[in-house]
Amino acid sequence: MTISSAPGKVYLFGEHAVVYGEPAVPCAIERRATVTVERRSDNHIRVEARDLSLDGFTVEYTGDTEHRPDVDVPTALVDAAMGYVDAAVEQARDAADMPDAGFDIIVESDIPLGAGLGSSAAVVVAGIDAATRELNTPLDCREVARRAYNAEYDVQDGQASRADTFCSAMGGVVYVEGDECRRMTAPNLPFVIGFDGGAGDTGELVAGVRRLRSEYDFAAKTVGSIGEIVRQGETLLQNANPETTPGQALLTELGQFMDFDHGLLEALGVSSRTLDNMVWAAREAGAYGAKLTGAGGGGCIVALDETPETETALEYTAECHDVFRAELDRTGVRVEEN
Ligand code: PMV
Predict the structure, then answer these.
(1) CA–CA dist 285, 293 (Å, integer)
(2) How far is CA 185 from CA 104, 222, 246, 321, in A?
(3) Burial (Cβ within 10 Å: 0-12, 13-18, ≥19) of residue 221
(4) Share above pLDDT 90 across residues of the chain, in percent, rounded to a whole number
(5) Could you give the residue numbers annotated as active site?
(6) Which pLDDT score, from 0 to 100, does residue 64 have?
(7) Which atom number of ligand 1 is nearest to the Cα of residue 152?
(8) Which residue puts its alpha carbon closest to atom 14 of ligand 1?
(9) Which is it for the CA torsion 57, 88, 44, 2, positive or negative?
(10) Which among 43, 92, 136, 293 could disulfide-bond with 100, CB atoms 3.0 to 4.6 Å apart, if both were Cys?
(11) In the structure, which protein residues have their CB atom closer than 6 angstroms to any atom of ligand 1?
(12) Does the global pTM surpass 0.85?
């Protein structure tokens, strides 16, 4: 039996624009998905999902994804969860050159599903790591990231950037621009996350931005401006001392860039009233800055505040279902038990 875990993430800057080759800076957070994998003697795959912010379910099937199990939860959720686990299994089988390997799999996660915190990337990364180790073919983090990207790319019909999967595999703060992916040195940032209890449809939101960008020059320029924010934000972080607590001047400027980024995402139509209300609650509470994180449409915002003020304000915000502080997680995928 092998257990691996991988972190979720927030986007400090750059979601959506990253799809068009602009840079993004996602940051891994201390909320993890944990995947337990045990080799079976046959070629079946049995998946048990626990604590996924949806009712747990267990399914057994032959590894043939056409063969849907008969379970009492909405098909879309089963398909989504199974799709990512399937894709991870396929990558592991391919890496180990064992196309018929069967597994019992348990997926646990404290990352809200589909809410912009990279839950699917964390499941895929941890799944590939655990399954390849179980087949005695451990991969290095970069190879796990590369294969996790391939898995997401397949499940999301080509609508995936390398940002989520690379960040989850490597941990810390990362810079992603097209195929260039690298870790950055950065100080620990005081993230506060507000969750509206909902989820956006990533495919639809990405398609909406794509439409706007191809139809209007000003929308294309808006996407380009997000890229500019990311480049300047990266310079700020690179010049900061990663060993010390970030100072007011750095947080003020980063916060200003986050506010700007949120405004541009809002203009591109990917925010929502609940996300905007949470963003404004955070700003009015004195956060350095606040923005949606991930695809948008619903889900989470991320704010910068080292005081308890933003958390308190979000607790009293009607649209906010859950609020928590998230430390930067400098460890990416890791094996918990082998
Ligand atoms: O909502 P998430 O965590 O799946 O993030 C989506 C981020 C996008 O930039 C909109 C798409 C992508 O693949 O980068």
Answers:
(1) 19
(2) 38, 28, 13, 33
(3) exposed
(4) 77
(5) 164
(6) 47
(7) 13
(8) 161
(9) negative
(10) 43
(11) 15-16, 18-19, 116, 118, 160-161, 163-164, 202, 206, 294-295
(12) yes
